[in-house]
Amino acid sequence: MLASEFERLAGVALRHLEQALESSGADLDIESKGDGMLEIEFANGGKLIVNRHGPAQEIWVAAKSGGFHFRWASGAWIDTRHGEELAVCVSKLIEQHSGQHVELRI
Description:
Blueprint: H1 3-22, E1 28-32, E2 37-42, E3 47-53, E4 58-63, E5 66-73, E6 76-79, H2 86-98
Antiparallel strand pairs: 1-2, 2-3, 3-4, 4-5, 5-6
């Protein structure tokens, strides 16, 4: 994929993820940190970092439980190890960190 196409697709995904998080009703703070990075902070001090990684053409998610890499495939951002979609993974991580059930759709 061309770098410009990756940047466009990743940018759309991050914007949609931020909007989904804001409208989820979950008790968390979302901050856009520069171009292509979201920081999600929970009341207990836990954090998730979601950012795009241009050289690998992936979206990365960093959590206390580990790191996840998502690659564009078949019209979705899919985890390279577990085959899970980005929004599903972030929803599960939010529940692990906050105890709040959230179903994100991006």
